Amino acid sequence: MSLGSWIDFDSISGWTVVWLVVTGVATWLAARYGRRAVGRVLGRVDGLSDNYSVTAARIAGYLVVLLGIGIALTILGSDVQPLLAIVLIVGIVAFLALRGVADNFGASLVLQTRKPAHLGDMVESLEHTGTVVELNGRSVVLRTFDGRLVHLPNGKVLSEPLVNRTSTTGNRSEIEIRTTALDHVATLRDPLLATTRHTAGVRPDPPPDLVWVGSTPNRLVGRLRLWHAPADGTSVASAVALGASEALREAGLAASLSAPPLPAALSPAPEL
What we know:
The chain is of the alpha+beta class. It folds into three domains: 3-97; 117-164, SH3 type barrels (Roll), CATH 2.30.30.60; 171-258, Alpha-Beta Plaits. The chain has helices spanning 14-43, 50-75, 81-97, 99-114, 154-159, 185-197, 233-250, and strands at residues 122-125, 128-135, 139-144, 149-153, 162-164, 171-179, 209-216, 219-228, 256-258. The chain is rod-shaped. The mean pLDDT is 78. Keywords: Membrane, Transmembrane, Transmembrane helix. Residues 102-165 form the Mechanosensitive ion channel MscS domain. Its main location: membrane.
């Protein structure tokens, strides 16, 4: 394939050269300032890696240059349809190959614009709970309570429920109480609630309460509900369970406590 098959040299005139120069200068300026604009906009996104900003700016510049080359070839009388077909095929292949990366990158822009979570927030998503330690172009990185680092893909985080525990004034925990002292149910409430109210970390508003949620002929199941700071759930619930156990022992009342509550039994409850 010769150069003549791409360019119609017989149609080139002085004005053609002028338009080529104008196109070249405009393309250079558009690519230069386009890269700067994209880099400046992405640089304002909190937590977005500099590498992603630079890469996106370069891609924007390359797209402008390709557009300028296409315009220049059109001015020279070239048939750009084969070139456009090649570019289209390459673009489709690149899109399919990088679809997951593009989805996560686009989701990261939405997440960092809407800001449902910030660095240091305690969040729950995709069956994982932990503190946000990084927000990048591919994932939300959590440090769980047992020290693991979990990378949650941005696309899935955006499409699934995200619970930000830090954005609320407090979280509620429940301690399950099982007792066979059916004749002393009324006397269980006072020592349990008094101990809970005086445990460090338990918030007075809303106040702790005790509700009964299950019953069999020889056992009652209740939930002791209390409020605390978002990050203190495990330590506060543990302290309440220990204190409540001591209070019940001193009162001569038998009950078992578990925090968090035990899962529901697989076998059906006996008929009353």
